[in-house]
Amino acid sequence: MAEDPILGELSGDKVLLGGAATGELYEQGSFGRPVPGGLHLSLVEAAYLLDRGRISVRVGGEDLDFQSFFEAATALEAGFEFRYVVYKDLRERGYYVQPGVTDFRVYPRGGKPGKTPAEFYVHVVSEREPVPLKELVEPAKIARQMRKRLMLAVVDEESDITFYEAKDRDLKGEMEVEAPGGTATLLEDRVMLWDPEASEALHEGGFYGKPVGGRLQLSLVESAYLLEKGVLRIVDRSGAPLTPEEFSRRSRLVEEEFDMKRLVYRDLRDRRLVVKTGFKFGSHFRVYKRVEGSKKVPHSEYLVHSVPEGHIFHLPVVSRAVRLAHSVRKQMVFARQEGDEVKYLEIRRLKP
């Protein structure tokens, strides 16, 4: 014979249950938070238990069925319907889930509150909801500081869920490049290095540029980096030398995102990585840990896209970028400036 549901009272954004609930719900299933004399359930926990007949809920002496409670909860808590979908999904997969510093904290399979630490902090969003960069960066920092992983649960218009992990990455390469100098000319939107020997040395030694008939054609960000490092001397068509400042000024006229890309390109190269255009993959750069000559080019490990400090992520765009990166065996990384440093945020699919 089924047990009678435990009676709870809706009060604000919590459901309050008596002391009998502590043993049955908290100790056995890790639902709610014990308080003197009883148990507090969050709205998503209460909805989950109400739907399963484990509790009943009243407000002002009136019993609420699941529909009435759900409608009330959506009015009390913005985004409740998305969080409920994710909570229910994770619980039914066998995970213990509790409210956390983001939306939830999730324990590893076989673990539970009080016995094992949580593995993930979960941040729930709708696919239609634009997500500011800082709303991923800050939770990722908190998760790292607490030795957790950040799970981004994206709920689409049909209430299907796609899970991602967002985490800071410390990218490092293995290149040692000592390239000879040379004189190159700024043309319209690229730079040409004319000397065949210097061209071959730069391309073979550091995988810079694109060989064109014994000469080397370089992008603006590549050229800016080599000019700053003193590897290249760059002149205009009249033969007048260009300072790094003048070269950058002219490059901005051609490429709107030049400064942002140059900053990230410089940081990646200084990390001993090889950086090439990622245009064919819809990102700013494809990045290699090491390239040993043009005849033995491996798959690049990362796709890196530079974003400004106030960037807003649109989740369908993120989904396409991450899926494409995965399909070509790369990791999708977003680069941002933070103070005087460049930081990297990797976003990848998760299968809980």
3D structure, described in words:
- The protein is α+β, with helices and mostly antiparallel strands and 352 residues long.
- Among the domains are: 1-76, tRNA intron endonuclease, N-terminal domain (MutS, DNA mismatch repair protein, domain I, 3-Layer(aba) Sandwich), CATH 3.40.1170; 177-256, MutS, DNA mismatch repair protein, domain I (3-Layer(aba) Sandwich).
- The chain has helices at 20-29, 43-51, 66-76, 80-92, 134-145, 196-206, 220-228, 244-254, 258-270, 315-327, and strands spanning 6-11, 14-18, 33-35, 38-42, 55-59, 62-64, 97-99, 104-106, 120-126, 131-132, 149-155, 161-169, 182-186, 191-193, 210-212, 215-218, 232-235, 274-277, 285-288, 302-306, 312-313, 331-338, 341-350.
- A hairpin with a 4-residue loop joins β13 and β14.
- α7 packs across α9.
- The radius of gyration is 27 Å and the shape is elongated.
- The mean pLDDT is 94.
